[in-house]
Model the fold of this input.
Amino acid sequence: MKLKQLADDYDVEFWARQIRICAWVAVGISLLAALRIAVAWEPGMRWWAVPMGVATLVQAAGIRLPWARIVRLRHAREALLTWFLAELAIIYLFEVVDDTGRMRYVPAVMLVVTAAATLYPPRWVIGVGVLALCGFFALVPMQPGIDASFIAGMSAMLACVVGLCALTAGSRNRLDDRRRAAERRIELLLENSSDAVLALHPAGRLQYVSPSARILFGNDQTWQADGNLGALVHPDDLARAREWLNALAAAPVGHTSRIEARLRCADDAWLYADIIGTNRIEDPALGALVLSVRDIGARRSLEQELTRQAFRDSLTGLANRALFHDRLEHAVARARRGGEHVTLLLIDLDNFKMVNDTLGHSAGDDLLTTVAERLSAQVRPSDTLARLGGDEFALLVEGVAEREAVALAERILSVVREPVQLAAREIVCTMSVGIATAAPSDGTADTEELLRDADLAMYASKRNGRDRYAVFDPAMYADVLREARVRAELERAVAEEQFFVLYQPIVDMPSGRPTGVEALVRWRHPTDGVLGPDTFIPYAEESGLIVPLGRWVLRQACEQLAQWRRDLPSARQLHMSVNLSARQFQNPHLVAEVAEAVTHSGIEPSCLVLEITETTLLTDSEAVLEALHGLRSLGVRVAVDDFGSGYSSLGYLKRFPVDILKIDRSFVQGDQEDADAATLTEAVIGIGRALRLQTVAEGVETNAQWTTLRELGCDLGQGFYFARPSEADVIARLLAGDMPSVALIEAG
Done:
């Protein structure tokens, strides 16, 4: 019968230890036999003491053999059974020769059976016991005069010993099987665990490595064979890991601590590991530091990605607002303690929304990425460049004077101004830059104040024409306060209806007769008198008050036209022009409000002309197109105001439903000898004629301009030469007189 394979080092150690014990038993039996021969045997037989002594020495030498290796050899343990059988044979032969010592056979073979029971399974032990009993019964006839009861008692005793040894061997095997099963369960659990478990001797030698270590470190690991943990740890982390292990070993029993370190994998790559250590040195069952190792590479990558997302802009990779504010606060704090200058540059792209609206958001993202790369090339590694959101960037620099900051702003403006290829089109991007500085001597430097100052400077550069920089000046506060005051007064003016409407005639160019009027709003300020639109319309646009103000002007103009048409026969064909701003087109109720004004006044929709600028067509073009189609469905006509002053495009004229082109005054008021101006004006009139659009010349101020425009074929005209913006009653007198020309009207 084949023995079970040794499961682990524990079984090997047990076998090696028990074999040595059995060898000592054999040495004792052999030594007693040699002494018996030397003392009690006849002189002629005492020479047997020599081979018996040699056998004793041989068995004593066997104690020193490397049994831990021998028992691992195939069939070595089965072959070792012959040793026990040889012992039985020697004892039997000895007792046969020794007439007076035959009854010593029983205790001797009991020792052999007991020794065999410590190693072999019950069947093997019973086999050895049966041979021992056979030997006993073979010796009985050689010993005359032995009482039968004595024989029965001795044989029963020997049989009981054999049975007990067999039961003990069975119990030991069952316990070993249970132990192996429990260990196997633990091994399977550890093998399928994501953690590797190591047992580290205080001297630094590895005592145990769980099977799951193969998952983390691979199969061929020299550090496992050598038991050297130092070969596993990254050189940069080794000193810190050893310090941690020493502190853990010096801690109380059961103390637990953790560390993160890089460990070597099978392919010489490095994994980030979380190591939890527990001190079990004083535990007699283990006597080691228990280390639980977990791969946290994925978690660390996720943490790094979350950190990047938390502090980096996802599109450009620059610092985001959170990281920028943190670094700005630290820089300002250093400046307050007497550190270096802190200079902040706020950078905003000019007309970025137009790029998104005309080329798409993908092109806008490409532009932002290109700008970020160009800006990054102009800054030092110690500087902080961030994208605060949208098209706004910020640059934090330390240790530079204002003159150097200005030079940096000029370089930024220059590199950003270089053409960019987007969506098969080449565009030129410009920026507005605001610069603010906190000096080291300024102990009151504040982060929010520095941001506010740079923001004021940036908006100052936009007001001054864009594509430039502005350095913060305390006088900018006055501009901000003035804007705030104007906005507050505008809110009150809208609520109290402090506005009124003037009307400027639009005349037929060949005859000079009025065919329409344009409604122009004015503000009757309580303290500053009458204010023109240039002084308050920009503020109304920014604050959104242009929406209720425009609604009021529209109603006033429609009601006035309705009154003229009721009272004056000559006004039956008169049309009313009202300006709409780009902000009004963002109002989703625009079409409904126009319809309500037309219906309430009772005028025909075709008598109302709504004027929009070219830039409005380019601002959120889809929303504008939808609103224009809605107005066209009402029957209202649409005019493009100041045509030629902005981004003139025949494509837009074909796409948008417009009826009238108003030629910008810059073309009309050119020098009479300016051939280019006349050519451009003629071209615009030709465009209108080709597209079947009515043309209106703005800013006609001289008879020569009127004559030229008539010769070029312009349909309508408007300007001081015909009439200035006038009150409604003045326009009524003009219409009632049915004058052939209004060129002499000087009302206003």
The radius of gyration is 54 Å. The chain has a mean pLDDT of 82. The first strand starts at residue 195 and ends at 200. Residues 376 and 382 are 12 Å apart (CA to CA).
